[in-house]
Amino acid sequence: MSTTRFLSADGLASWLAEAAASRQVLAPRREGKAVVFRPLAPGETPVLARTTISPKAAVFPPCETLVRYTGVKDPENPAKITLSLDDTPNAPEQILFGCRSCDARGFLALDQAFLKGKFQDPYYRARREKLLIITQTCDAPCDSCFCHWTGGGPADPTGSDVLLTKVEGGFILEAVSDKGEAFLTAEAGAKLPDGADKMDEARANREKAAAMQKPAPDISAAAKRLEARFNDMDFWTAQTDKCLSCGACTYMCPTCQCFTITDEGDSLGGRRLRSWDNCMSPLFTREASGHNPRAAKAARMRNRVSHKYWYAPGYSEGRVACTGCGRCVRQCPASLDIREIVLKAIEE
């Protein structure tokens, strides 16, 4: 049986402050009209609301330095420069607090890209190993949520270390991984009272939230139908007409992982940067020759949707590379809905 703890609502801020003494705590904070993940200030109570952006920046920052280099001129031969490199990952111990189950599930897609196969990304791996994920289970779905379409749910533990569920007077913390078990028994969680007597209430609240979701359609044929529609450009043009190619869907997505590499500096010092990129951008696939295999907006949308629902299941044990968080639906300025595209693709 997994370890459970009870955290009172009025003790949340002080408990997180104690946890922040040994790790950086990333938690939801309201900034203007957005709710974003930011390092928690001492004594600050997080905003336990759905965030505007996903938490993937905890392990895959929007812009990060991969390598710094410094050049030193030889005093006897100024034309000769000796370079020193520093490729040490910036990987502090972190707690990601208050993300949702769809967010935690998204890390599996990132793990597939950065940690599986012959080559692993050392920068991503260093941050991932030092990340503890405390996931807040959902009280109720919103109109744009469709996590149950993609194999998840309001309290899905996949990708999480600890589940946080609201109960009368506070929250239940339940360990769902070895890392979470260690945290609740040997770190800040060990000082909290046992929560076993409130687990029935926590389970009932989770079941209530799941029952509030509308029945999910069967999308098991999505991969086969998307493959069949690959050359149906009339279909993709119709689905993409109102898209602005702004890229909001990719930047908000918890599973999108495209990036670009740039260098800045001179012979005496500089750095190599990795930054998020956007597969919906017209220039994303333009080659050095000037040829662009996805110059058409419809071709770019075809790749985005097909990657998530056709290509990804083939190399990730059947999992689609979409968690149903609904951010791409909520944040699209043209009200494009990936659910509608997938359902129309399935139609004969």
Shape descriptor reads flat
How many DSSP helices? Answer: 11
The largest sheet, given as strand count, sense and whether it forms a barrel, is: 7 strands, mixed
What proportion of the residues is helical, as a percent range?
A: 25-40%
- Uncertain spans, ≥5 residues at pLDDT below 50? none
Distance between the termini: 47 Å
Describe the structure.
The protein has 348 residues and is α/β, with parallel strands linked by helices. The chain contains 11 helices and 11 strands. A hairpin with a 2-residue loop joins strand 4 and strand 5. It starts with a strand and ends with a helix.
Topology:
Layout: E1 4-8, H1 12-19, E2 24-31, E3 34-39, E4 63-74, E5 77-86, E6 94-99, H2 101-115, H3 122-129, E7 131-136, E8 162-167, E9 170-175, H4 178-186, H5 199-211, H6 222-228, H7 233-240, H8 248-252, E10 259-266, E11 269-276, H9 297-315, H10 327-331, H11 338-346
Parallel strand pairs: 2-6, 6-7, 7-8
Antiparallel strand pairs: 1-9, 2-3, 4-5, 4-11, 8-9, 10-11
Helix pairs in contact: 6-9, 6-11, 7-9
